[in-house]
Amino acid sequence: MSAAAAPTAEPAAPHGAPAGRHHAAAPKGPLNHLTHAVALVLLFGVLYVTTRAVPHDHGPAGTIASIGFLLLAGTLASELVEPLRLPHLSGYILAGVLAGPHVFALVDHHAVEEISRVNTLALALIALAGGAELRIEIVKKSIKSLLLHNLVQTVLVFVTMTGVFFAARSLVPFAADLPLAAAIGVAILWGVIAITRSPSAVLGILSQTRATGPVAMNTLAFVMTSDIIVIIVTAIALATVRPLIEPGTTMSMHEIELLGREILGSISIGTTLGLALAAYMRLLGRQLILVFVALGFGATEVLRYLRFDALLVFVVAGFVVANLSNQGEKLVHAVEDAASVVFVLFFATAGAHLDLPLLRLMWPVALLFGATRALVTWVASRIGSRLADDPPLLRRWAWCGLVSQAGLTLGISLTIERAFPSLGAGFRALVVGCVALNEVFGPILFKYALDRAGETALEASRGSLAGVASRK
Description:
Shape: globular
Strand content: under 5%
Distance between the termini: 13 Å
Oligomer: single chain
Helix content: over 70%
Low-confidence stretches: 1-24, 461-472
Number of domains: 2
Number of helices: 19
CATH class of the largest domain: Mainly Alpha
Radius of gyration: 23 Å
Mean pLDDT: 81
């Protein structure tokens, strides 16, 4: 190949990475960004004037209008944060925060709650895509590292954050006056919250950056497998701490039995669903978006009613399609097409959901817990990397994708609140405050790590051109 032709060649994807993930977009000039900025300001201005002149419509029309606004605002904001090397997720969240009930109130609480129903579809797509990206060859190659990192991260983060919460309980309003035994029980529950990660943030960043390579693939594999561990640890913790928080009760093995049924049943249903989905895609392969909608809304509700874990079901289904059929790439591309809109709405709604008055009240404690969790995550990653003898790239950057928290964390906090009503809403309020910080800074940190590791499409393209130039 001639030197003149070489710069136009697309960089090859790393071995074992899904084909076609590197597609560097054409660079946008200042005029494009100025146009986006003007359009975003006009959009906010028009809706601000409209909402002040006309009361909020709490019917379907108002919800549809809010959906359209968040989609447009989130997309425009994501283009504006791009020159700052920030992930698109930051733009989606920022647009939601500004439009939400606590800033400009362009989208009210009712609309946010109604739009939040799309979360079930988003989580289904996230789980399907995550399972489909977990190729057997990648898992086999990094099985030792994966097991060691899960063990070290789970134990070290859980123990450290349990101790930090217990030591700092006097700073937490709902825990300051708890008896010693109850304080220990609540601290253990906080340790469970601390080991949760965010598949949605990881998948969102990977979808935007088209990142491939050791950091991207190992982070994805870790986050998806750690969710299974979190489900197990949560059930064990709920059974263990009940006698501490509610004196007079005894530890019940019934919840452990239900856990076994939930996990085995979810894996079985996921395998069946994956085989059925692969057969449909091979024989028909049309209207996949309708199939995803049916799975996201219909199947999720059925699984929840039957007490199976929908996230685990869809992860297994995606894994089966990718590894037991030749439909894996087709599934990944179909999910990416559908998620391109759903992700904007998912994270913009998450931004609108952020309770800023609560965060302003809880931010010192939330910052303490969030910073400590990030620090211990880094320490655990270094220890795990040394034990697993990981390459230098993983030792340096693997921890950055493990800071984000989102839907799974909030879901577990709601489960804990229902299991222990005596804690009141204080526990969940503190979780919301910590998730808000991790949701904002975690994706930024992960994208920064992928850029520095040279695994994003843009950075890989730059590296390819630099290599060509150096050979001239």
